[in-house]
Amino acid sequence: MEHFSDLLNQFPEAKTIHVNKGDMLQFVGDEYAKVYYVKEGLLRSYTIDEKGKEHIFDFSHEGHYILDAEAYHNHTPTSLFIDAIENSTIIIVPQEKINPKDLNAELILNEYNDLTERVGILQKRLILLISETAKNRYLYFIDRFPEAIHRIPLKMIASYLGITPEVLSKIRGEIAREH
Questions:
Q1: Rounded to whole angstroms, what are the CA distances from 52 to 48, 59, 111, 158, 164?
Q2: Residue 52 DSSP symbol
Q3: Rounded to a whole number, what is the distance in angstroms from the first to the last CA of the chain?
Q4: Dist. CA 128–CA 169, nearest whole Å
Q5: CA-to-CA distance for 171 and 1, rounded, in angstroms?
Q6: CA-to-CA distance for 81 and 37, rounded, in angstroms?
Q7: What is the layout of strands, in order, in the sheet containing 54-61?
Q8: Please, are residues 156 and 179 in contact by the beta-carbon 8 Å criterion?
Q9: DSSP reduced 3-state for 17
Q10: Rounded to a whole number, what is the largest CA-CA distance in the chain?
Q11: Which pLDDT value is given to residue 172?
Q12: pLDDT at position 3, please?
């Protein structure tokens, strides 16, 4: 079965690089968005509000990619920071280098399925943020990132969930007592 990473390796412009924990891959306002495919490691995308508070938009671990989709699609400056949460090996593809003519039907179907899954996850997250308790948002997060939950710092999880680290600590304690 062919996947997006197989296609990325075909582009001479695609670069496989190793980054260290904390390395910045993208800043808000960068002129060109890129696709970051995670071969190994963990990345996050986020924004910072006018008070300096981080708001995490998404995480990406092995076998997944992360990008500023709006900037990528609309060819506008980026609105998200992207950095490495842990040492990572990633494939980077510049904005203009993916040509639909290079995609075969199997790859298109696989990527369509992956994309609709990601859109569904983001849709669910938005619905949870506006209508569910913090505890339910955390339970969904555990289900969404089972292989990465212990790799993501609690402060970042709290930011992703839209709660404080203290509230997250209380929720985790409550869940532990229930089990």
A1: 6, 20, 35, 16, 15
A2: S
A3: 40
A4: 19
A5: 40
A6: 15
A7: 24-26, 81-84, 42-48, 54-61
A8: no
A9: strand
A10: 55
A11: 94
A12: 55
- Structure pTM? 0.80
pLDDT at residue 157, as a whole number: 95
Residue 179 CA to chain centroid, in angstroms? 30
Separation in Å, CA 48 to CA 40, 52, 56, 60, 92:
26, 6, 9, 19, 23
User: Which has the closest alpha carbon to 159: 134, 133, 132?
Assistant: 134
Structure-token pair, residue 66? 């992360």
Work out whether the CA dihedral 32, 35, 39, 45 comes out positive or negative.
positive
DSSP-derived 3-state class of residue 89: strand
Amino acid at 8: L
Angle among Cα 92, 89, 148 to the nearest 5 degrees reads 110
CA dihedral 23, 28, 31, 36 (to 10 degrees): 40
Fold (CATH) for 4-105: Jelly Rolls (2.60.120)
Sign of CA dihedral 11, 73, 47, 130: negative
- Picking from 19, 17, 64, the residue whose alpha carbon sits closest to that of residue 38 is 64
The residue ranges of DSSP E strands in 108-175, in sequence order, are none
